[in-house]
Write a structure and sequence with these properties.
By secondary structure, this protein is mostly helical. Helices cover 78% and strands 0% of the residues. 34% of the residues are buried.
Length: 430
Amino acid sequence: MALLLSVGTIMGQVVDKAALKALQKEAKAEMAEAQRINEAITAKINEKTATEEEILSECKKGQALIRKAIKGGGIAENKLGEAYKTFVELTFQPHNIMLKHAVDKTPFDTAFFYSNLKNMTNALQGEIKNTKVTKGEAGNEAHLKTRLVNLAQSGDYYIYAAQFNGECKKYDKALESFETAMNYTQIYPEVAGKAELRIPAEQIAYYAFHTAHEGKLYDKMDGLYEKAIQFADGAAGTKQVMAESYRERGDTIAWAKYIRDLTVKEPKENEDFVQILISYYLKQDKQAGPESNLTIQYVDEVLAKDPNIYIAQYGKAYKFFEQEKYDEAFDAYIKCTELQSDNYEGWYQAGLCKYRKALALNATVSTIKNQVEAKKTLEKTRGLFGEAIPFFEKARECAPDEPMKWAFELRQCYSVTGQAAKAAEMDKLL
């Protein structure tokens, strides 16, 4: 039995050696053919007899042969640098041709641009890693330094590739390209400290985020958001798109939470979102019933962070007014006037609190049987109408050319308080 096992092991080694030899032979043939293609097309390019279609076609063939040879593992370790060198040369010409088309805004194969770019940077890395540096006049030191420069400068091309793929609606490929650009020195550590992309990482993340949104790739969006929001020039648009994406996903709860977290953390920077969420909570309160106070709870959170957010203070006042809590609404509207003294709305609404309170009290007078109490209530009503006047007059000062905004209430207040001439003046304005 032991003898049989020994024989089997020897036979296996023989088979492995035979397979390796065949693999090496195949790789050698593939490499030879790729080099032949490279030399032939380079000669025609130098002679200016090669057509663009011929260059692209032949370089594709050569690249495929080298990739197969390297992937198959049949190239000896000391020959890998040479293989990658040929691979690099077969990517440069197509790259330059397609870049020229991009500059000239003429059609070209964007899918090949991306695959050729990946081949080019991987080949550059392979040549650098697998080539022993030799110095002196006949050495390769200067050549390898040039290759490092080539690799360092190629990061920007991934941004171009991302744009090309995005324009063709190949969103997965576009995001893959952006990701390579953002992580370029991690993928190609040989150029760490040497590669400087033309735009910062947060701006690339911003482009990638919006590309993901265009492609409805919401998981990718979520992963890119924190980096994208750091691009200050696009932060407002990024927030808007993030909020919209939750609506598109049909997740209103997540939408509300996103905006709430955003606005409670930084209310001043996100006042438009504060207004949007107040409108949302007002509708929620209306659906839930008169005792629902989602709006008040939210605006109190915002105001606790920053008491000077006008729209939050106004939303609080509006909600109290809607609940006919006129005293609380009045106090909140007065705070609005303190924040924006030239804003008509705060003054008018403060006056309206007194006015509505007076109307409500006046409606009870006819139900009071005790004449003394009825008279006291009537006087109190007149007093409330009188208290409303200064606020309506301030509203008038803020919008003097728009009497339809304040003249009706002022006429009523002046009439009830016995100021007939002023009431007549309001009549003329109406």
